[in-house]
Amino acid sequence: MKLLSVFFAISGLFSIFEKNISDKDWQQVTKIVYRHSDGSIAPECYRSFTVTVTADSIGVTIRNYSKVLAQKSYPNTRQAYNAFVVKLKDMGISKGKETEDLSTGGDSESLSLYKGDDKFFDAYKSGRGGNLRLKKYNIEELFKELMTSDLIQALRNGPEI
After folding, report:
1. 26, 51, 81, 132: which could join 123 in a potential S-S bond, CB 3.0 to 4.6 Å?
2. How far is CA 26 from CA 81, 118, 121, in A?
3. Are 89 and 22 contacting, i.e. CB atoms less than 8 angstroms apart?
4. Please, are residues 143 and 50 in contact by the beta-carbon 8 Å criterion?
5. pTM for the full predicted model
6. How far apart are CA 63 and CA 48, in angstroms?
């Protein structure tokens, strides 16, 4: 019983380091920026991408290190934006205590949330380290759902567009 009490006390300590996003904050999000970067791999295979989502537009940039392979912006609707924000919220996103990953070469990703021009949430994951916490994982796939087929092809080492 004593061991169980110690476990819950330690679990509680870790939760004070987490920054959860309130319902009010989710309602005020005006821009979402997600960045994904492949680990250290050969230049011909490397891909990173940035997806910027607002109520008016979705912008995607795909890079091969510093070279832009594809860049596209297309319209969004308020209804689609609100539905996307709900999906993102349902992933249980929070910012936890930063952890280190002693391995090298892993994928990395970051998520930034804005209210107008003010960034109020910024968290990242690199390999197994970072401070981005998700209760339901695979945020990358959620953002890929916003991409058109030609952008998905560019991500899969397809031709430049």
Report:
1. 132
2. 12, 14, 11
3. no
4. no
5. 0.81
6. 5
